[in-house]
Structure formats: C-alpha cells, structure tokens
Amino acid sequence: MPKPIHEADYRQLMEVLRQARLRAQLDQAAVAEQLGVPQSFVSKYENGERTLDVIEFVAICGILGLDPSQEIAVIGRRPRLRPTAKTSN
User: Fold this and answer.
1) Where are the membrane-spanning stretches (predicted)?
2) Which fold has domain 7-76?
C-alpha cells in the first residue's frame, strides 16, 4: 500500500511533541496520566503507530505548554508534494 503524502509532516509533528515532552522533563507515563490513558497511547503516537485526532492533539499541547496553532502553522509552511495532474491524450 502506498504511503500517505502527509506522512513526513505527521512524523515531524510527532517529533515536535516528543521533544516538547522531553524539554518539559515528563516521561510518557506522566503525559498519559494527565490524559487519562495508558502509557502505551503516548508511545504509539510518538512512534507513528497511532494517529492523533485534533482534540487529542490540543490536549497534549496543553500538557506540554505548546500552542497548537503555532505547531500546525510550522507544518503548514513546509513545501508539499503535489500530485501530478494526469494529462489526456
């Protein structure tokens, strides 16, 4: 199965969350406790095994002291791969 075109962006965003967690001197268990989820939840999104929905992302940003809109804006400024238009002959 082909990889989604947004995979690199998503991995970058998850790395931002992981680095922010480390800067905040929190382990995965501490973040999970504040979210009310198992530690494996944090591990899986940081490792790309699980995706986050917007509500989860905002909650995690709150715990880590990040502004969600600023973090998304960084991703929005990255160059995008554009699907090539099919030409008809």
Assistant:
1) none
2) 434 Repressor (Amino-terminal Domain) (1.10.260)
Question: Under 8 Å CB-to-CB from 57, ≥6 apart: which residues?
Answer: 68
pTM of the model: 0.78
- Give the per-residue SS3 of the chain: CCCCCCHHHHHHHHHHHHHHHHHCCCCHHHHHHHHCCCHHHHHHHHCCCCCCCHHHHHHHHHHHCCCHHHHHHHHHCCCCCCCCCCCCC
**Which residue is listed with tokens 């992302």?**
57
